[in-house]
Automatic annotation (TrEMBL), chain A:
Annotated keywords: Antibiotic resistance, Cell membrane, Membrane, Transmembrane, Transmembrane helix, Transport
Domain (ABC transmembrane type-2) ranges: 27-266
Name of the protein in question: Transport permease protein
GO terms for MF: ABC-type transporter activity
Family: Belongs to the ABC-2 integral membrane protein family.
Domain of life: Bacteria
Organism taxonomic ancestry: Bacteria, Bacillati, Actinomycetota, Actinomycetes, Kitasatosporales
GO biological process terms held by the UniProt record: response to antibiotic
Classification via InterPro entries: ABC2_TM (IPR013525), ABC2_TM_bact-type (IPR047817), ABC_2_transport (IPR000412), Nod_factor_ABC_transporter (IPR051784)
Spans through the membrane: 74-97, 118-143, 155-178
Automatic annotation (TrEMBL), chain B:
Keyword Transferase (UniProt): no
SMART domains on file: AAA (SM00382)
Topological category with respect to the lipid bilayer: Peripheral membrane protein
Protein family (similarity comment): Belongs to the ABC transporter superfamily. Drug exporter-1 (DrugE1) (TC 3.A.1.105) family.
NCBIfam families from the UniProt entry: drrA
Identification of the protein by name: ABC-type xenobiotic transporter
Species the sequence originates in: Streptomyces cacaoi
Subcellular location: Cell membrane
Positions of the UniProt region annotated as Disordered: 1-27
Length: 270, 341
């Protein structure tokens, strides 16, 4: 078998292991499914009226009116992005638990692909995350989200969300590797999961104070959310598309390289 | 023994081609280490150690806590990079051919390297998949090992619920899934109850006798080294201070003796006058008489005391064991000066 085929086989084995963990201890995986739906319901029904009213006059989706029914068209893509960030916690925790046990040293003394261990965790988290994204999208449509996207636009939106999930999973794998305890590993991805709130996920940045507004407009999640809106409900993605794509690929690359390096160093520096 | 008689061949792979496994991987399980060095933050942990382990034998690295045993295993199993020296594992260069080294070794460390979230059976199947066995072979190996380690009843239990001894057995079973030619066992029985310890010992012996696996074992139990190892090296503060068979090492320390206990000092003085080769200990009221503990020697001593009517309470026979070797060879400073690892 070639090196690539072996790497693929080992990664698949590691992925099976991670999914087996998820099936046996479903609490983390269930939260990945349930949290986004809860957020969606909360923002649509509890806060939707007030937040939707505040959008009037904002430049967001253009046609945003003050009613809850329209606010869901604004919030749904934001919640879909939040769902894509939900899996990062389980990667960080999963990697850290493995690192603090003895099993990783066993893997290191075996003739297997060096990156299979991390790849298994990352791909496992992306699969679970995307299940959460699909679920929250279905629920959104059921309660009134009316996207006008073509199949191709749907595909592009899901592709972009997958890229977001992948970037966060690699970064979180890095967190899991550098964290000394499982507790700190579970805290590290928190800021990433909060970032959409400080962007255009829930309200338009125009309503924010100047400093925060500048941050909201320039942080990576805002172009991603705007691209999603453009694909699903709007009529174009403008420059947000390429910017979002650049941010995501950049973060995937950085996260991947960082996690691999941290994994390598964790062996040498024991 | 037959295993050691082939050692010359195993050490010079140029003369005798190493056996080839069914999957084409080379298998020449001999360890050849010269001048191995390792430092942590400027502190020398391994100070140039040499090791030569012939194929199909058990080699034991014996030493107190902090002597560098675990570091040695970590380096030889490719977990840590050495800072100096040369090492060939199964004929492969440790540093330049580490991938090949990993294909022929198996490691069971001090702490159970099992997946606590999976069942015993799933752990073994995971190892089978990572050893790239096909499904049928993986299933068969799993069943065989569960049976061999008496784990069949626990096969479907989550490892987190198993006892420490069962986890250690599973750990060893997992290491054996890939049929390693060279097995590193880092303190494999530390913390095990006597029965589990026997199981591990029997397994090791069987692997060596039936499959000619080479075993590199670290331990702080002298009994274990005495029981299992063909050759023993004593590691102290990063250096090999003695090497040989258990008997070689025992010969290096003062021999056995008979210890006589007396009711009072007068009796002790009288006995000491009669047996002038003895060493008296007035505090403990004992007399140490050199001797091998055989019946003629015992009878001679008792006859001398009997004829002179010197009352002796009891006697004990002390044959030299590895404890004597250990204490004689590893300095008293070793035990207080514990290294972090």
């Amino acid at each position: 078998m070639s090196a690539a085929a072996l790497a693929l086989r080992d990664s698949r084995t590691m992925l099976r292991r991670v999914l087996l963990h998820a099936r046996r201890y479903p609490s983390l995986s269930l939260s990945v499914l349930i949290m986004p739906v809860t957020m969606l319901l909360l923002f649509t029904f509890a806060f939707g009226g007030a937040l939707g009213a505040g959008l009037t006059g904002g430049s967001g989706p253009g046609s945003a009116a003050g009613s809850g029914a329209d606010y869901i068209d604004y919030i749904a893509p934001g919640i879909m992005l939040m769902a894509a960030t939900a899996g990062s916690l389980s990667v960080a925790v999963g990697v850290c638990v493995d690192m603090t046990g003895g099993i990783v040293n066993r893997f290191r003394t075996m003739s297997i692909s060096r990156t299979a261990f991390l790849t298994g965790h990352v791909v496992g988290a992306v699969l679970q995350t995307m299940a959460g994204v699909v679920l929250v999208t279905v629920v959104a449509v059921l309660i009134g989200f009316r996207p006008d996207a073509s199949p191709l636009e749907w595909l592009a939106a899901l592709g972009l969300l997958t890229l977001v999930a992948l970037a966060l999973a690699w970064l979180s794998a890095g967190f899991g590797l550098v964290a000394r305890t499982v507790e700190s590993a579970s805290n590290m991805p928190m800021p990433l999961q909060f970032l959409p709130f400080l962007g255009s996920a829930v309200v338009t940045p125009e309503t924010m104070p100047a400093g925060l507004r500048w941050f909201a407009e320039h942080q990576p999640f805002t172009p991603v959310i705007e691209t999603l809106r453009g694909l699903l409900t709007g009529d174009g993605i403008g420059t947000d598309g390429p910017v979002a794509l650049a941010w995501c690929t950049g973060l995937v690359l950085v996260g991947h390289l960082w996690a691999r390096r941290a994994f390598h160093r964790s062996a040498a520096g024991r | 023994m037959s295993a050691t008689s082939r050692s010359g061949g195993a050490r010079s792979p140029g003369l005798i081609p190493p056996p080839t496994r069914a999957d084409g991987r080379r298998a020449a399980p001999a360890l050849d280490v010269t001048g191995l060095r390792k430092e942590f933050d400027g502190r020398t942990v391994l100070d140039g150690i040499d090791l030569h382990v012939p194929e199909g034998t058990v080699f034991s690295l014996l030493g107190p806590n902090g002597a560098g045993k675990t570091t040695t295993v970590a380096i030889l199993s490719t977990l840590l990079a050495p800072d100096g020296g040369r090492a060939r594992v199964a004929g492969y260069d440790l540093v330049r051919q580490s991938e090949s080294v990993r294909s022929v070794i198996g490691v069971t460390g001090q702490f159970a390297a099992v997946d606590p979230l999976l069942t015993a059976e799933e752990n073994l199947r995971l190892m089978a998949d990572l050893a790239h066995l096909d499904r049928a072979t993986g299933r068969r190996r799993t069943a065989e090992l569960l049976d061999a380690f008496d784990l069949t009843k626990a096969a479907r239990r989550t490892v987190g619920t198993l006892s420490g001894g069962m986890r250690r057995k599973l750990d060893l079973a997992m290491t054996l899934v890939g049929e390693p030619r060279l097995l590193f066992l880092d303190e494999p029985t530390t913390g095990l109850d006597p029965r589990s310890r026997r199981t591990v010992w029997e397994t090791v012996r069987r692997l060596v006798d039936e499959q000619r696996v080479t075993v590199f074992l670290t331990t702080q139990y002298l009994e274990e080294a005495d029981h299992l190892a063909d050759r023993i090296a004593v590691l102290d503060r990063g250096r090999i201070v003695a090497e040989g068979t258990a008997d070689d090492l025992k010969r290096r320390v003062p021999g056995g003796h008979i210890r006589l206990h007396f009711p009072d000092r007068a009796a002790l003085r009288a006995a000491a006058a009669l047996l002038d080769s003895g060493t008296a200990d007035p505090e403990a009221l004992t007399l140490r008489v050199p001797g091998d503990g055989g019946i003629p020697a015992l009878r001679a001593v008792l006859d001398v005391l009997g004829e002179a009517a010197v009352p002796a309470d009891r006697l004990s026979v002390h044959t030299p064991d590895l404890d004597d070797v250990f204490l004689a060879l590893t300095g008293p400073g070793t035990h207080s000066e514990e290294h972090a690892r």
